[in-house]
Design a protein that fits this description.
Rossmann fold; alpha/beta; 6-stranded mixed beta sheet; 5 helices; 8 strands; single chain
């Protein structure tokens, strides 16, 4: 059974198809005040580990887009979390990659969710009729999943 996020922002159990969660990785990491800037690569590994827990708890398809490639997080499946990198370097490259993924994979509607606090990206995502969750709210959800609470 897949889980589906209702209007309240909490995940409920549903028999519908699995949700897809596309995460703006650097935006989510940057929303946490946990010293991530001292070990950026470690922070990305930690995020992917937390996303793996979300994937196991919900059965959702989880895709994370990271700004800078790192050897220990190869493109593709990483124990249930798909890691994707931008096709180019520079400002907004990861944001553009998220929009490309939505378009290429025809991801739209309430069964898809993009996680970001970037206003421009959020606007582009909403134009595609995809719900957006802010990074802070998403980090709270991850904490709830990790503590065994409702996901």
């Amino acid at each position: 059974m897949a889980r589906r996020r209702g209007m309240s922002g909490h995940w409920g159990v549903s028999s519908s198809t699995a949700r897809t969660v596309v995460v703006d990785g650097n935006n989510v990491v940057g929303a946490g005040a946990d010293g991530w800037w001292r070990d950026r690569k470690g922070a990305m590994r930690k995020l992917v580990g937390r996303l793996q827990g979300l994937q196991r708890a919900t059965g959702a398809t989880v895709v994370v887009v990271l700004d800078v490639p790192q050897a220990d997080l190869p493109v593709g499946d990483n124990d249930g979390v798909e890691v994707v990198y931008p096709r180019r370097r520079g400002r907004n490259a990861a944001d553009e990659r998220i929009v490309e993924l939505l378009d290429e994979r025809q991801l739209t509607g309430p069964d898809v969710e993009v996680v970001t606090s970037d206003r421009e990206l959020a606007a582009a995502v909403r134009e595609r009729h995809v719900p957006v969750t802010g990074a802070g709210s998403f980090l709270s959800r991850l904490k709830s999943v990790e503590s065994g609470g409702e996901s």
